[in-house]
């Protein structure tokens, strides 16, 4: 059974930093594309950052230069370092793994990030 457990969310003032982590189990982590999404009430889930199994990364324009995604295949974890946070970054953040061949998606339970102005 695949489990993704996120941690690190919370309340921070604008300009501050948070680090989200996602620990995976029940899956061969290194095979999978790892992604962070976020969602605010009433809006579609937004893809924030992606890291493939070679370590190549991609970001939505609104977080480029502020967020950094990384992965540790030995520990089956993916992290999102968020700096210079803005109120518009407030959302529930979800960790996602996607198998590159089967396209199976696995999701974490989400962690709330709130940035106060």
Q: What this model shows, in words?
A:
The protein is mainly beta and 117 residues long. The chain has strands at residues 3-7, 10-13, 18-25, 33-39, 46-51, 57-59, 67-72, 77-82, 91-98, 105-107, 111-116. Strands 2, 4, 5, 6, 9, 10 and 11 form a seven-stranded mixed beta sheet that branches. Strands 1-3-8-7 form a four-stranded antiparallel beta sheet, with no helix packed on it. Strand 4 and strand 5 (46-51) form a beta hairpin. The radius of gyration is 13 Å and the shape is globular. The mean pLDDT is 96.
Summarize the model shown.
With 117 residues, this protein is an all-beta fold. The chain is 0% helix and 53% strand.
Structural class: mainly beta
The topology string of helices and strands comes to: EEEEEEEEEEE
- Please outline the major beta sheet: 7 strands, mixed
Approximate strand percentage: over 45%
Radius of gyration, taken over Cα atoms and rounded to an integer in Å: 13 Å
Could you tell me the number of beta strands? Answer: 11
Q: Count of DSSP helices?
A: 0
Kindly report how far apart the N and C termini lie: 40 Å
Mean pLDDT comes to 96
Question: Unreliable segments (pLDDT under 50, ≥5 consecutive)?
Answer: none
């Amino acid at each position: 059974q695949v489990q993704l457990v996120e941690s690190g969310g919370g309340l921070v003032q604008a300009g501050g930093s948070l680090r989200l982590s996602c620990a995976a189990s029940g899956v061969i982590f290194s095979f999978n594309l790892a992604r962070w999404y976020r969602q605010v009430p009433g809006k579609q889930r937004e893809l924030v950052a992606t890291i493939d199994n070679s370590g190549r990364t991609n970001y939505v324009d609104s977080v480029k230069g502020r967020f950094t995604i990384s992965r540790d295949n030995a520990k089956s974890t993916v992290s999102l370092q968020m700096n210079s946070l803005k109120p518009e970054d407030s959302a529930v953040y979800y960790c996602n793994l996607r198998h590159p061949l089967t396209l199976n998606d696995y999701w974490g339970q989400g962690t709330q990030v709130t940035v106060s102005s």
